[in-house]
Amino acid sequence: MTRRRSRPVAALLATLALLAGSVAQAQRYDGPLFDAHLHYNDEAWRAEHTLPDVLGRLQRSGVRAIIANSRPNDGTRTLAAAGEQTRAAGVTVVPFIRLYRNRADYTGWFADETIHAMVLRELAAGTPAGPYRGLGEFHLYDSANANGPVARQLMQLAQARDLAVLAHVDDQAIDLLMAHAPRARLIWAHTGIGGASVERVRALLQKYPMLMGELSYRPGLTDAGGGLSAEWKALLTDHADRFLVGSDTWINARWAGYEGLMADARRWLADLPAPAARRIAWDNAARLFGLPEPAARPAE
Ligand SMILES: [Zn+2]
User: How many Å lie between the centroid of ligand 1 and the Cα of residue 251?
Assistant: First the structure.
């Protein structure tokens, strides 16, 4: 009697365990991540976020490559010079030139010839990890400044040298920047932090085949439960080859919560079909910079 009753119960429990397992699996993307929006600013490395600290966070998060930029560029050079440590952590560093020497440069760079000259010097010098691969992140709080002389020069420089550009701008500035350099590889930081509509984002992606969208801080991306909202799930599924994941460690609090940020990304990525999740998490950025498949993680 006991045996007869326990068999179906055991079978039911086994089925439930299996279901729970597959639900848990479906709620987390488990492949490699490429962090396409990372800053290693001076206040991070001067405080507790030393090189071993940040590499540990990347490694624990399954991040296998980063777009590295920093204010000033010293932090990027530190990462680029640490070949032995970054290799041991299984992380490839893709260096970008930040336009800012200090916070004052945020608001005037687009008309500051000394910043153009600094970019040319940095490009000529390169980094211990190889040549710089992009410019940015830069900000335009007023989209009209996309027509500033240095903004135009840098877009044209990026196009001529095949550099990617990471730009924190609104949708109007995307049109203005692309008018300067229609073949430039523009990465739209946050894909419109002011909340440009999904229809507008879709139209810009269709208009500019080289435009990519990075998704940190994007309003409306996720719902209260941390999953993808319906309209963003549709957009990311339709244009899975055009989006990137980023952390945006612009203040130390973002470093302190880094593993949580990447866990959040793994959660919403899991709402996409597996091939789309993989493209957004890794393949699209790897393709932009010609990175190979990440090797098996080095032994810890
Ligand atoms: Zn940023």
Answer: 9
| Residue 70 Cα to ligand 1 middle (Å) | 9
Count CB neighbours of 35 within 10 A: 29
Q: Is the confidence at residue 222, as pLDDT, over 80? A: yes
Q: Using the predicted structure, report yes or no on whether residue 297 has a pLDDT greater than 70.
A: no
Answer whether 97's CB lies under 8 Å from 132's CB. yes
pLDDT single digits (tens) 162-191: 999 999 999 999 999 999 999 999 999 999
Compute the distance between CA of residue 37 and CA of residue 215 in angstroms, rounded to an integer: 9
Measured between alpha carbons, how far is 74 from 109 in angstroms, rounded to an integer?
Answer: 18
| Residue 247 Cα to ligand 1 middle (Å) | 8
Q: Looking at residue 18, what is its pLDDT? A: 52
> How far, in Å, from the CA of 293 to the mean position of ligand 1?
26
CA–centroid distance, residue 24 to ligand 1 (Å): 31
Helix, strand, coil percentages for the chain (3-state, nearest 5) = 55, 15, 35
| Chain centroid, CA 32 distance in Å | 13
pTM: 0.90
Q: Above 80 in pLDDT, residue 245?
A: yes
| Ligand 1 geometric centre to CA of 185 (Å) | 17
Segment 106-118, tens digit of pLDDT: 899 999 999 999 9
Q: How far is the CA of 167 from the centre of ligand 1 (A)?
A: 9
For 65, the enclosing helix (H) or strand (E) is strand 63-69
Lookup: tokens for 94: 């893709």
38 C-alpha vs ligand 1 centroid, how far in Å? 7
Instruction: Give residue 300's pLDDT.
Output: 44
Find the 253 Cα to ligand 1 centroid distance in Å. 13
Concatenated DSSP letters of 230-260: HHHHHHHHHTTTSEE------SHHHHHTHHH
